[in-house]
Amino acid sequence: MGNLPAERITPTYPFNVCGVDFIGPFLVKPVAQRRITARKMYVAIFVCFVTKAMHFELVTDLTSEAFIACLKRFFARRGKSNIVYSDNATKFVGAQSELKRLSDMLKKPDENLSAYLASEEIKWKFSPPRFPNFGRLYEAGVKSFKYHFRRVMKNTKVSIEKILTIISQIEGILNSRPLTPLSCDPTELSVLSAGHFLIGRPIKSVVEPEIIDTPDNRLSRWQITTKVVKFIWKRWHRDYLNHLQQCSKWQFEKNDLKIGSLVLLQEDNLPPCKCVIGRVKDVIPGSDGKIRVANVQTQSGLHRRGISKICVLPMNNNE
């Protein structure tokens, strides 16, 4: 494997170097009324190359004016970027005409967009044609959002207020994911997340009553929005923990579960942005000498779990 690009490992403030990609279209109503025609809108996903933080912006159409407004909102909230990467857009060939128009606008900016980028001294770079590995970082952000959003919403028409609420909460969910331990102290349970780089502390959501099993006809409009976010959180959280537990072919003996390792526990019905974090207190091998069970110390006490319910964070300061 080659070395990471300099932009990925050079310390800098969040979103100084970022990638952008679009997903959509989504059918969005200006207001939540029945006889209002829905319009096609899109979501721009900005991914920081250094911190892996994400930022979502709603784009109302495919004009350069709408995209410039999107960039201005992004820069006003996260600071101006010096370098922005985007896909070369060859993958859009033969795809929906709307996405092709969007890709053409990014590849050949018109006078308004070119003038804005030049005035702000922003370098716009493209990944090589037919080389998706160059955009893997922001493509992963698109996949995380689109995969779960489409399966929950199922092309439902939503109001602009509702989709803004949903994408903001999904942004918080993705920026709350644990990245690595903050300390090698066995009594310390804090983890580093993208939220630490953005607001200086973990991102947490408001605790709300459990309504996932409640029929939609018994819920208000905002309760349905909350239910959608919880569905997306539940699906994404499960997939993220499964990703941490991915197993390769057993070509040699390997055991990642060690005493003192910082781990995440698989628990059901957790609220959004909430993860159960603990340290492995001791391990219990089976009759064959393989570790099957472990005792994990969390803030709420000592828990005994099978190793299938324990996920070791990707990096550990002890190693």
From TrEMBL:
InterPro entries: DUF5641, Integrase_cat-core, RNaseH-like_sf, RNaseH_sf. One of its GO terms (molecular function) is nucleic acid binding. It comes from the Eukaryota. Gene3D superfamilies: Ribonuclease H-like superfamily/Ribonuclease H (3.30.420.10). One of its GO terms (biological process) is DNA integration. It holds the Pfam family DUF5641. Residues 10-194 form the Integrase catalytic domain. This is Integrase catalytic domain-containing protein. It comes from Araneus ventricosus.
